[in-house]
Amino acid sequence: MTASTEAETMTAIAVEGGRGPASALKPVRIARPQPKAGEILIKVRAAGVNRPDIVQRLGMYPPPPGAPDTLGLEVAGEVAVAAGRWNVGDKVTALLGGGGYAEYAVVDARHALPIPAGFSFEDAAGLPETVFTVYANVFEHGGLKAGETLLLHGATSGIGVTAIQMAKAAGAKVMATGRGADKAKAALALGADVAVDVTAEDFAEVAKREGGVDVVLDMVGGDYVSKNLDALNTGGRIVFIAALGGAELNIPIFRIMMKRAVITGSTLRPRDADEKARLAAEIERVVWPWIAAGKIKPQVDKTFPLADAAAAHAHLEGGAHVGKVILVAG
User: Fold this and answer.
1) Which residues of 152-187 are buried (b: 16+ CB within 10 A; e: fewer)?
2) What is the pLDDT of residue 330?
3) Which of 91, 95, 174, 205 could form a disulfide with 128 if both were Cys (CB 3.0 to 4.6 A apart)?
4) How far from chain centre, in Å, is Cα 260?
């Protein structure tokens, strides 16, 4: 490979065969992306690993039109080609439609945010996917307010640890669930007011003893759905962001009517560029001051070199993590 060819290519992670287990993730050389008008090119220093990446690797979550085929929904690094408000050399973290598992990534300049003071690239790479998801679903769709109670499932996931801290920063009470005493203990250490080991207790019964909940952030579905409704106060909201335990709802309509419950949900990745830009601006206005005040702190469970993406996926699938799993690109 000549020097000029080397400069025009980069290392990225591909799924061998198009889909497969974690071991199918392999480093390859591909063309370096070229930013279009309004896009920045980021020299990636770190990339977050998220459960949607696993679903895409398995062939069940194709990227939206125009997004790279390679995995990776969030990165942190330095601006290599400027656009919008950014200059070359600025340190940014950004939400992507894909392509983060690579040495370079392109993104709409409006979807990048400044790396908070005191955060490393690894810390910052774990922010966009979780913060955007929590803000959109808990605060916008769920309408969580100060003084209300959030019930959060999957408390020690990347989404979970972020949701605990953001809800507490907003003045809400947090009840978190996890599978196992260690996960419940970790949730309390992260700031949850009440933590339930669902292998030992019925979270709906605990919630009712605690006065009920106003918003539920559910990534489980399945048999949690009926219990969520039991735990919900009148006028409460249930927001779905995944369905790891089952994707079908079976709830008597009169129970929803009696509680005046709102059941909703959303995805983040397919939203259009303008909507993501709106979210980014709101997050910088609302959440970045919470970070500056020390109310939200990075929770990196483990880092892996970019070339070891397969090991990173295996670690995330193992379920023992508390917080984010991060790839370090150099």
Assistant:
1) bbbbbbbbbbbbbbbbbbbebbbbbbbbeeebbebb
2) 72
3) 95
4) 29
Q: Which residues of the chain have pLDDT under 70?
A: 1-6
Q: Which residue has the tokens 């490979």?
A: 1
Adjacent-strand bridge partners of 265: 240
Name, in order, each residue with C-beta under 8 angstroms of 275's C-beta and a sequence gap of 6 or more: none
DSSP 24: G
β-strands 194-197, 213-218 pairing: unpaired
β-pairing verdict for 91-95 and 25-31 = unpaired
> How many separate helices (H) and strands (E) can be counted in the chain?
11, 15
172 contacts 145 by C-beta, under 8 angstroms = yes
Contacts of 36 (CB under 8 A, 6+ apart): 106
Q: At what angle do helices 273-292 and 158-169 cross, to 10 degrees?
A: 60
What stretch of H or E contains 82?
Answer: none
pLDDT for the residue 100: 98
Q: How high is the pLDDT of residue 6?
A: 58
- Under the phi-then-psi rule, with left for phi > 0, alpha for psi from -120 to 50, and beta for the rest, what region is 229? alpha
Q: Tell me, what's the pLDDT at 248?
A: 84
Instruction: Round to whole Å and give the CA distance between 98 and 103.
Output: 13
